[in-house]
Amino acid sequence: MPWAVEPNNAADRLRRIEAVTDTALVQLSVEQLLHELVDRVRDVLEADTATALLLDASGQQLVATASSGLEEEVWQNVRIRVGDGFAGRIAADLKPSRVSQVDHDTVVNPVLWEKGLRSLLGVPLIAQGEPLGVLHVGALDDRAFDDEDVRLLQLAADRVALAARSRLTNSDRAAASAVQRSLVPAQLPDVTGFELAARYAPGRGSDISGDWYDAFGLPSGRLFLVAGDVVGRGLSAAMVMSRIRTTVRAYALENDDPAEVLTRLDRNIRHFEPDAMATLACAIWDSSHNQVHLSLAGHLAPVVSRVNRDSTLVEAAVDPPVGVGSATQARHTTTIDMSGGAVLVLYTDGLVERRAQPLEDGLRALSDVVYPGPPEAVCTEIMNTLVGDTATEDDLALLAARRQNTDDLRTLTFSVDAVPEALADIRTELRRWLPEAGAGEDDVTDLLVAVGEAAANVIEHAYGPGGGTLSLHLETHGDDLDIIVSDTGSWRPPRGTHRGRGTELMRSLCDDVQVENGPQGTSVLLRKRLSGSERE
């Protein structure tokens, strides 16, 4: 191997240093690249060890990443605080350093003196003005590293830093992109009474930003919508975005007020992400489907479009982004009336901001193009008009939700596993759908009990240990509602005495109950004349 040739003079050593990052290393990963480079640096400097330590994401610690002759540092995941010891001082001062005595007074890592090193030479790794870490070499004898050694090691370090920065940038970009793809919902939820559509489009910049959206149903029957933008770019912004998304979901399960969700999120960010800042628009569509409760944390207002009315930006108070401002400042919730067919559009600023035009122009163009139609078509029209055939400067996220008209909600079909835990899911789904289908409060109460009895019978009697599926089909015919609860099992005889009263209860709550048993399973038809509701 050419790197084993004994250098004859300084010029030969310089040529070999200049070739440290040759084209043969192009296909290597960051770790493989650094391992190969420290081998070459150790050989060129005629040292007994060579080690590369990179700064972690916080920029406060050096992590042993690659070593030749001192592999224990990597195996033990040695970490050195910036400013401490030999390597830490180099990272803090960004200047070369030499020591001729290696012990606990000069270095903080005992591996170095336990290995028997007598002298060390280290230089900072800097690429394009950005510190990346430290590269140091060591000798087992009393070698005194001279100025020529310093110059050669710094030259090697500069080339190592450039190669590592390029590779790390590509790796971070790929990782950030993977995080972004994994967190933007691959498929929007199927929430009864609503239609949803979304878009995420990267900008022409090379770094991924912290733009994101999310939509999910809540046990209360409400629909939670959010669009957000973490300040910053790259992997760090994507990771903060992922943690914010998870935190929002957790708080949304406990609070039906979006301002309270953002208040708790702000407290979380200040404690766990003290350097982070993000804007968010959180909207909770209530279970009646008649209102949306909105809270804005430094985010642009959504657009609302109702049937036979102009599309407009929502007039809502804009509170500070999470992570900045006063921690005690109260956040506000704005309530928006939403009729059947109304559309709500949340987005990030990459959709409407352009360098060559005022923000107001982009907001006006967005309002003009939104209409109360199917969300998928609305999103397509928005992207065609505001993005067209030119990539935006910044990433963008877009989320549209439409309240379905009552005429679109005549049927509902879904299946669940025949296990006791499914009863809660069935109740949640019925609470969402029944009011939109024309059921009044008393109707909903009666049907929750009746369907619950029918479903509980399936869970208890239809299947053995292998389990099975419980299916429900609901369909309205004018003022009449038919509900079919079915299974594909073979019913077991009732256990114990004084059982079977569930059928009596169903008959008392419904106008008609029919049970059909057959080789393909059992179906229970519950029919009820609806008393009506206050739906629009």
List the helices and strands and how they pair.
Layout: H1 10-18, H2 30-44, E1 49-55, E2 61-68, H3 72-75, E3 79-81, H4 85-93, E4 97-99, H5 110-114, E5 119-127, E6 130-139, H6 147-183, E7 194-201, E8 209-217, E9 223-233, H7 234-252, H8 258-272, E10 278-285, E11 291-297, E12 303-305, E13 312-313, E14 318-319, E15 334-337, E16 343-347, H9 359-369, H10 375-386, E17 396-403, E18 411-417, H11 422-437, H12 441-461, E19 469-477, E20 480-486, H13 501-509, E21 512-518, E22 521-529
Parallel strand pairs: 11-14
Antiparallel strand pairs: 1-2, 1-6, 2-3, 4-5, 5-6, 7-17, 8-9, 9-10, 10-11, 11-15, 12-13, 12-16, 16-17, 18-19, 19-20, 20-22, 21-22
Helix pairs in contact: 1-6, 2-6, 6-7, 7-8, 9-10, 11-12, 12-13
Explain what you see.
The chain is an alpha+beta fold and 536 residues long. It contains 13 helices and 22 strands. The chain has helices at residues 10-18, 30-44, 72-75, 85-93, 110-114, 147-183, 234-252, 258-272, 359-369, 375-386, 422-437, 441-461, 501-509; strands spanning 49-55, 61-68, 79-81, 97-99, 119-127, 130-139, 194-201, 209-217, 223-233, 278-285, 291-297, 303-305, 312-313, 318-319, 334-337, 343-347, 396-403, 411-417, 469-477, 480-486, 512-518, 521-529. It has a six-stranded antiparallel β-sheet, with helices on both faces. Strands 8, 9, 10, 11, 14 and 15 form a six-stranded mixed β-sheet that branches. Helix 2 (30-44) runs antiparallel to helix 6 and helix 7 (234-252) crosses helix 8. The longest helix is centred in the first third of the chain and has 37 residues, at 147-183. The radius of gyration is 32 Å and the shape is elongated. The chain starts with 9 loop residues before the first helix and ends in a 7-residue tail after the last strand.
